[in-house]
């Protein structure tokens, strides 16, 4: 298995994703932003469709379109402060409308399944380079903004009072979410990207530890879920996205059972 080029590519891409997605996901969960992950993952569908139709690498167009949607979400949240879910629905409707029109035109339908469900066969060296570059940039940005993000997550008003540029950091963070999602679609698939951002975090939270420990545990669970999911998808010939999603859910269930057994 490991001697196959496409599996090497899948594991390299999966490893980068498994570190970055739970890192982003912990902040999303604690800030009650979980729906942003779902919204932007479906927005990336429109970006992929645009790339397939015009003949550009879909990861690039997905990144650009998802970034645009992330900015739109932050802009609209200022107008609908009490109805954040309404903003998500608006952006989701807009994105899916574009995607459906382009896919139904017949110019992109042949390749769309690999992006919807993920495919270990289609991860190329070009994709790896792009994922690596975007992943490193996102990770460095998160590490640079780490203390401010933690402060904003737990006390946004206090962060504003202390002089932190909360609005700017929220824009940057939302763009980082979009970038992370757009580079994960090759392995995870559009339909289940948000699962690897949220479920490992939910699993890590069962340990009931501090913030940093929960973050490290979420990353470890993310790595485990993706690696096991990729191996299983190879042997049972299934889409990696769904296999990884199920692996992450089973890991969560086992962790809950184990935690309750230990606490008795």
Automatic annotation (TrEMBL):
> Where do the TM regions start and end?
12-33, 45-73, 85-108, 128-147, 168-185, 214-236, 242-262
Q: Which domain of life is it from?
A: Bacteria
Topology relative to the membrane: Multi-pass membrane protein
Q: Which GO terms describe its cellular component?
A: ATP-binding cassette (ABC) transporter complex
Localization per Swiss-Prot or TrEMBL: Cell membrane; Membrane
One biological process term from GO is: transmembrane transport
Q: Name one Pfam family in it.
A: ABC-3
Q: Which UniProt keywords apply?
A: Membrane, Transmembrane, Transmembrane helix, Transport
Family according to the record: Belongs to the ABC-3 integral membrane protein family.
Protein's name according to its UniProt entry: Metal ABC transporter permease
């Amino acid at each position: 298995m490991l001697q196959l080029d496409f599996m090497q590519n899948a594991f390299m891409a999966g490893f980068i994703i498994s570190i970055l997605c739970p890192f982003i996901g912990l902040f999303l969960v604690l800030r009650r932003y979980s729906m942003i992950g779902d919204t932007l993952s479906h927005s990336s569908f429109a970006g992929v469709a645009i790339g397939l139709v015009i003949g550009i690498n879909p990861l690039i167009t997905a990144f650009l379109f998802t970034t645009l949607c992330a900015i739109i979400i932050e802009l609209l949240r200022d107008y609908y402060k009490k109805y954040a879910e309404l903003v998500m629905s608006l952006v989701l409707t807009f994105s899916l409308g574009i995607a459906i029109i382009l896919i139904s035109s017949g110019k992109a339908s042949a390749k769309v399944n690999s992006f919807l469900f993920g495919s270990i066969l289609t991860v190329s060296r070009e994709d790896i380079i792009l994922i690596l570059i975007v992943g490193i940039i996102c990770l460095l940005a998160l590490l640079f903004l780490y203390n401010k993000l933690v402060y904003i997550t737990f006390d946004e008003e206090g962060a504003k009072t202390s002089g932190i540029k909360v609005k700017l950091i929220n824009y940057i963070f939302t763009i980082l979410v979009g970038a992370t999602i757009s580079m994960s679609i090759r392995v995870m698939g559009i339909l289940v990207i948000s699962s690897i951002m949220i479920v490992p975090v939910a699993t890590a939270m069962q340990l009931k530890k501090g913030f940093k420990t929960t973050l490290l545990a979420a990353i470890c669970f993310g790595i485990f879920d993706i690696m096991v999911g990729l191996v299983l998808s190879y042997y049972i010939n299934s889409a990696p996205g769904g296999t990884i999603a199920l692996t992450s859910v089973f890991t969560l269930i086992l962790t809950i059972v184990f935690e309750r057994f230990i606490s008795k």
